[in-house]
Design brief:
By secondary structure, the chain is an alpha/beta fold. The protein is built from 14 helices and 19 strands. Bound molecules: zinc ion.
């Protein structure tokens, strides 16, 4: 009798158990929008993207892909669905204050608790689901990264260089910059960064006298299978970096109109030897200055200050209000185009990145603005620009099989924007939806 009673109540019990499990499950069908999957393929109209927990389960179109019963339907009609954006050149510790000295003097003890988490949150709300930070206190970024990974605070997936290595015997002046005075220190500090889980090594401020130190950093990192990226606004910095065999160079400097012939020969030789040379131009900061000067109102947007305490917000606002906008010479655009062309002709591979964090480039704005600069100032195909800031960035970081396109089996880092970025790039400015690892965060 008792056994029969249990058996009779079993289906009911099973329903209860499966309902409880389902409540924890996350199954979402994004239905109707234009899909740009990040691969560079033509967009898909009337798309369906099925998200099952943290993964993309299936991609198809209305009428062809069946939506299982237990999926929550989310309409993306009138929207474009695309992979979460990447920004592989950011500085999370800054929040747009125009005076670096002031920022470090007053807020260095708040980077881990306040400023880095604020930038991380702003990035996520802006649809940027993966970033690479190039110069930040190693302990601070490691702390914030693990808080994000555990789900304690919101933010993108973070790849980081930790503190930038500066080949100099001057004492340490700022926490995100680590002086390396000789070859021995270079080896030790590089190994420490790698042991701390940093993903890439960043070199800043190389001088001809420091060539051996730079060589030692690169050799040590490469022996551990870690790439090295070097700051390269000046020609001499670039020569040192190329001699040492760095993987990637940062920025396009505009203080000289062209790269000298010997430097371009070095680039050509390097690529001809079969060792890829990557270059991270970060041109938006230079080419958007005139617009900032003409109409700085967007800097007042409250979303640029999300996550910051009122005192810090007021401090940034006041500093911006009294800051001088350094207007770029009209030749800057031509110089950048000329230099990009000369590098491109020699087989350099460009990596995307905005140099977020500095004045005029808050986390909530920097990424789409950089991309827009490439599309509208330099005429880059919008579809390729989006591939560059998604699949190509993931490929460069070695994780394209896990993320970077909207494809079955990959982590569901997905955003939806109103309208089409193929026609109006500013549609990327404020995504209507953001999914990080399948969880809807906006
Ligand atoms: Zn930078």
């Amino acid at each position: 009798m008792f056994v029969r009673k249990i058996l009779a109540s079993l289906p009911c019990l099973m329903t209860l158990v499966s309902t409880l499990i389902l409540a924890q499950e996350n199954r979402v069908a994004l239905v109707g929008g234009l899909l740009i999957d990040g691969s560079g393929e033509e967009p898909l109209r009337n798309s369906i993207v099925l998200i099952n927990n943290d993964r993309i389960e299936a991609v198809g179109t209305i009428g062809r892909l069946a939506i299982p019963e237990n999926y929550q339907l989310v309409s993306t009609e009138g929207m474009t669905v695309l992979p979460g954006l990447w920004d592989p050149h950011v500085h999370l510790l800054y929040n747009g204050h125009p005076d670096f000295g002031h920022w470090f003097n007053n807020y260095s003890d708040q980077f881990a608790d306040i400023t880095i988490p604020a930038s991380a949150r702003q990035f996520l709300m802006a649809g940027v689901t993966s970033v690479r930070d190039l110069a930040v206190n190693t302990d601070d970024i490691a702390t914030v990264r693990s808080r994000i990974e555990s789900g304690e605070i919101p933010g993108p997936t973070i790849y980081a260089a930790g503190s930038a290595l500066v080949p100099t015997d001057a004492p340490q002046s700022r926490p995100h910059i680590l002086p390396v005075r000789d070859v021995q220190t270079a080896i030790e500090e590089t190994n420490k960064l790698i042991a701390a889980g940093m993903d890439i090594i960043k070199i800043l401020g190389a001088t001809p006298a420091s060539q051996e130190t730079v060589n030692a950093i690169v050799e040590t990192a490469h022996a551990a299978g870690v790439r090295v990226t070097a700051h390269g606004r000046e020609d001499e910095e670039i020569r040192i970096a190329l001699r040492a065999g760095v993987d990637e160079i940062q920025h396009i400097g505009v203080s000289t109109p062209t790269y000298p012939a010997d430097l371009l020969d070095m680039v050509e030789d390097r690529v001809a030897n079969g060792v890829p040379l990557y270059w991270n131009p970060t041109i938006g900061m230079i080419l958007n200055t005139d617009e900032l000067a003409a109409d700085p109102e967007w800097l007042d947007d409250p979303k640029n200050f999300v996550g910051l305490p009122p005192e810090m917000e007021m401090n940034i606002r006041q500093a911006i209000a009294s800051a001088e906008f350094a207007v770029q010479p009209p030749a800057a655009s031509d110089t950048i185009k000329r230099k990009l062309q000369s590098l491109s002709e020699r087989g350099v591979i460009f990596t995307f990145g905005s140099d977020e964090g500095t004045f005029g480039h808050p986390a909530s704005e920097a990424t789409w603005r950089e991309l827009e600069t490439w599309v509208f100032e330099l005429g880059m195909d919008p579809l390729l620009a989006l591939k560059w800031a998604t699949a190509d960035s993931a490929a460069y970081m070695g994780v394209l099989d896990e993320v970077g396109t909207i494809s079955p089996g990959k982590l569901a880092d997905v955003i939806a924007v109103k309208g089409s970025p193929l026609r109006h790039f500013s549609t990327l400015r404020e995504p209507a939806m953001v999914f990080k690892n399948g969880q809807r965060v906006k």
